[in-house]
Amino acid sequence: MSQVHPIDHPLIASKLTAMRRCDTSSAEFRRLLREITVLLGYEATRDLPVRLEPVATPMATAELPVLQDDPLVIVPILRAGMGMVDGMLDLLPMAQVGHIGLARDEATHLPQEYYCKLPFGVQGAQVIVVDPMLATGGSAIDAVASLKARGCQRIRMVNLLAAPEGLEAFGTAHPDVEVFVAAIDQGLDENAYILPGLGDAGDRIFGTC
Ligand code: PRP
Ligand code: URA
Question: Looking at the whole model, is its pTM more than 0.90?
Answer without folding.
Answer: yes
